[in-house]
Specification:
The complex is a heterotrimer of chains A (245), B (234) and C (308).
Chain A lengths: L3 E10 L2 E11 L4 E5 L6 H9 L6 E6 L2 E2 L5 H7 L1 E3 L12 H12 L6 H15 L14 H14 L4 E5 L7 H16 L3 E5 L3 H7 L2 E6 L2 E6 L1 H6 L1 H8 L8
Parallel strand pairs in A: 3-8, 3-9, 6-7, 7-8
Antiparallel strand pairs in A: 1-2, 1-4, 4-5, 9-10
Helix pairs in contact in A: 3-4, 3-5, 4-5
Chain B lengths: L1 E10 L2 E11 L4 E5 L6 H9 L6 E6 L2 E2 L5 H7 L1 E4 L11 H8 L6 H14 L1 H5 L10 H13 L5 E5 L7 H16 L3 E6 L2 H7 L2 E6 L2 E7 H6 L1 H6 L4
Parallel strand pairs in B: 3-8, 3-9, 6-7, 7-8
Antiparallel strand pairs in B: 1-2, 1-4, 4-5, 9-10
Helix pairs in contact in B: 3-6
Chain C lengths: L3 H19 L1 H4 L3 H26 L6 H15 L5 H22 L5 H26 L5 E2 L5 H24 L1 H11 L1 H6 L4 H27 L1 E2 L1 H4 L3 H13 L5 H20 L4 H15 L5 H8 L6
Classes of the chains: A alpha/beta (245), B alpha/beta (234), C mainly alpha (308).
């Protein structure tokens, strides 16, 4: 039994099954990649886990307890945090205050303001933004905005971190530093679930990969297995070039 | 075909482009690369008339277009496909495409162009009646490019067509872009995926903080230490 | 936020202003406190409106409802209870109705929230009209009179209270929380903020002060009926004044309400025929040049964004 489990998770939008009968079992400390074509249901699955959406069927369990229909803020307090596909920051709030807010509101037990400030400073160091702490979020370039979103999520002291396409739009060099950051986060004990299209990143950091297609789990396994999986190549990768690594 | 000479652009008091020079000849594919906030999108916006530069000139087919309103620049034959597509979310695929052909009056011409776009992107044909908002990311990108093609442009400017697309779709999008080039459309490609951009383009310009720091054929870039370290992670 | 010098200066001048207003009756003709009372009323309504709607960007058009509830409390209880208690009851009445309203329109945002609140006012107005007519058998009510000086000091105290509460909210984590709800509500809920709870509580809090003002002002107007108490125009006036002054900074609503009320009094007395025309034009001109409201002026002049 892993830290985050899903059993026959299903979500219907009217007649359309965005996610159908998906099972998953994530162990603590893993980095699991969630890939699939656009519209495969990856973000929907994230939304179901984080509480933005409620399941139509099936169950999601965190540390053995059912969380399927809790509200987002409750799930956050339990220890699951996320970032968003299109960066969802508080534009007119400063970088520091983003992380401060996450620390004060999102932790399982009450955090005092003074502790929250310390923690915010530490996290800003980790994500590489201490120099920008007074800057308003809307004035940051994309790469820094993504770091801030990660920092804000980390401030809530999650055991499980859901990252939704954080690597999109980054140069190869930025990708390297983000990969390092994610590894650092994992070594701190956080389990990471990663939706990505940037295959270099996925292949480099994930312990395991789950592939979704049309809302259904298509394949699951080690990166190398997935990279060679014919079905996955056909619907998603387009080539077996990723298998080289 | 397109000649950008010492273009400078401000956002309020902040300068985002510094005397940028760029040239595209007919039937070329030129890439503009650089990280976020390097000014790539601003450059395209300045060329297509969405923003007015503070100094410098832009000549398209011999005409100066700096002071022209955007719709007239579009009529001259420049198609700007913005980052994210700029689609009309509540309109159907077919309606989005038809609006792309707005500047051409002829019904027959519109239908022919529509057919051709459907040939290039069969996925769009299958979803012709679907509302744009319900399309997935990759399909939206296809639609954006398709709509850009409807105006039968002389110059097609693509802003990060591969953003957030699955590897398979990235391949398809670039296949479509290559297809376009083979059909004779001149293309200006802004891309984050530098490797891909260099694979396809004849020439490239590297923008950093609003300045052109390197320009030339692909080999020049692949051999540059700076590019390898800062962008290709090598 | 680094208040530093700014905070001391502001506190100093604010205290000076309050002192000036408090001693007004001693050196101004009796009419002045009466006129200023109206201004104070608009300031309370605007500041309490902006307390919630400013940071969260929910546009409430139900100010008149909560103001009216306070008024009616005064009318009904005025004869039986001492004045301070009546005022408290009016505030609490509005508070609880605010809680109820907040709970009912939980799923609404943006435009829908605005329309709902506007409709709410109409609902309450007509309900009270019906009740008064059928159950209480009266059209309007007379309100126990209180002398104008007392009213003046009560309103001044309410202004000070409302402004202080707003100030302390903004400085505290709640200010940040409300701002985050206005910026990105979905993201806010994902970092542990119980958006529902904050929406309901702070909305009701703003209603509390509207009710307080209503309970006091009823004694000034002496006669109220549903049309007067739940006057729809009062739904919009605080919004306009807040936008005019600018919701970005805390003093924006105060300045906006003060200037617009003053302007309307002056215009009304000098140009009784063209008053509306001039008033409207003033509004349009300011908003065209300063879309952020009057506070935009200081923004341009100082040219640095303050953050916390």
């Amino acid at each position: 039994m892993g830290i985050l489990e899903g059993e026959k998770v299903t979500k219907f939008f009217g007649g359309l099954a965005a996610v159908f009968d998906v099972d998953f079992d994530i162990d603590e400390g893993e980095i699991v990649g969630l890939i699939g074509p656009n519209g495969a249901g990856k973000t929907t699955l994230f939304n179901l886990i984080s509480g933005s959406l409620s399941t139509t069927g099936g169950e999601i369990r965190y540390q053995g307890k059912r969380i399927s229909n809790l509200k987002p803020h409750q799930i956050c307090r339990l220890g699951i945090a996320r970032t968003f596909q299109s960066v969802n920051l508080f534009g007119n709030i400063s970088v520091f205050d983003h992380v401060f807010l996450g620390s004060i509101c999102g932790t399982a037990s009450r955090t005092k303001a003074v502790d929250a400030r310390h923690k915010a400073a530490t996290i800003l160091e980790l994500v590489g933004l201490p120099a920008r702490k007074s800057e308003l979020a809307k004035n940051l370039p994309l790469g820094e905005q993504k770091r801030l979103e990660i920092g804000r999520a980390l401030a809530t002291e999650p055991r499980v971190l859901l990252l939704d396409e954080v690597m999109a739009g980054l140069t190869a060099t930025e990708l390297n530093s983000f990969t390092t950051l994610i590894r650092q986060i994992r070594s701190g004990g956080t389990t990471i679930l990663l939706v990505e299209h940037v295959m270099q990143a996925i292949m480099a950091i994930c312990d395991r990969i789950i592939v979704l297609h049309h809302g259904v789990k298509l394949a699951e396994g080690l990166p190398q297995e997935i990279a060679k999986n014919q079905k996955v190549i056909e619907v998603y990768l387009g080539t077996d070039a990723y298998a080289e690594r | 075909m397109l000649n950008v000479n010492r273009l400078s652009l401000f956002y309020g008091k902040i300068q985002v482009l510094w005397e940028v020079c760029l040239r595209i000849d007919e039937k070329e594919m030129v890439a503009v690369i650089g990280s976020n906030a390097s000014g790539k999108t601003s450059l395209l916006n300045a060329i297509s008339g969405l923003l007015t530069p503070s100094s410098g000139t832009v000549e398209f087919l011999g005409k100066g277009i700096v002071k022209m309103p955007a719709y007239r620049i579009a009529r001259l034959g420049i198609s700007h496909i913005p980052e994210g597509g700029g689609l009309f979310p509540d309109m159907k695929v077919s309606e989005n495409l038809e609006l792309g052909a707005y500047i051409h009056a002829g019904e027959k011409e519109k239908r022919e162009t529509l057919q051709r776009v459907y040939e290039i992107f069969p996925a769009l044909a299958a979803r012709a009646g679907q509302v744009a908002r319900t399309l997935s990311g990759g399909e939206r990108q296809m639609l954006a490019i398709g709509r850009g093609l409807m105006s039968k442009p002389r110059l097609c400017m693509l802003d990060e067509p591969s953003y957030a697309l699955s590897p398979l779709l990235v391949m398809e999008v670039f296949k479509a872009v290559r297809d376009l080039r083979d059909r004779g459309t001149t293309i200006l490609l802004v891309e984050q995926d530098i490797k891909r951009a260099l694979e396809m383009a004849d020439r490239a310009y590297l923008l950093e903080n609003g300045r052109v720091v390197l320009d030339g054929p692909r080999e020049l870039f692949l051999q540059s230490d700076h590019v390898r370290k800062a962008y290709l992670g090598l | 936020m680094d208040y530093g010098k700014g905070l001391w200066t502001k506190s100093f001048f604010s205290s000076l202003l309050v002192l000036f207003l408090a001693t007004l009756p001693f050196y101004m003709p009796p009419y002045t406190p009466l006129a200023v009372t109206s201004i104070l009323m608009y300031v309370v309504l605007t500041v309490s409106w902006a307390m919630f709607c400013g940071p969260t960007r929910y546009m409430s058009l139900a100010t008149a409802t909560f103001f009216g509830v306070g008024m009616y409390t005064s009318a009904v209880l005025g004869e039986r209870l001492p004045f301070p208690v009546v005022v408290l009851c009016g505030s609490l009445g509005s508070f609880f109705i605010g809680l109820l309203t907040g709970y009912i329109c939980l799923r609404l945002r943006g435009f829908y929230f605005a329309i709902f609140t506007f409709g709410l006012n109409e609902l309450v107005r007509n309900f009270v009209l019906w009740w008064e007519g059928r159950v209480a058998h009266t059209v309007g009510r007379w309100v126990v009179l209180v002398d104008s000086l007392t009213i003046y000091y009560y309103m001044l105290a309410i202004v000070v209270l409302t402004v202080l509460v707003t100030f302390f909210i903004n400085r505290s984590k709640y200010g940040l929380i409300l701002l985050s709800i206005g910026e990105a509500e979905e993201a806010a809920s994902h970092i542990g903020i119980n958006v529902t709870r904050y929406r309901i509580v702070f909305f009701a809090l703003s209603c509390f002060f509207m009710g307080m003002a209503g309970a006091v002002m009823a004694t000034k107007w002496a006669y109220i009926d549903p049309r007067i108490a739940f006057n729809p125009v009062l739904n919009f006036t605080p919004v306009l004044m807040a936008l005019f002054g600018g919701v970005g900074k805390m003093y924006g609503p105060i300045v906006g309400a003060g200037i617009l009320t003053l302007a309307s009094e002056i215009l009304l007395s000098r140009f009784p025929y063209y008053y509306m025309l001039l008033y409207g034009s003033l509004f349009i001109v300011i908003i065209s040049f300063l879309p952020d409201g009057l506070v935009g002026l200081t923004g341009r002049w100082r040219r640095n964004r303050g953050t916390r």
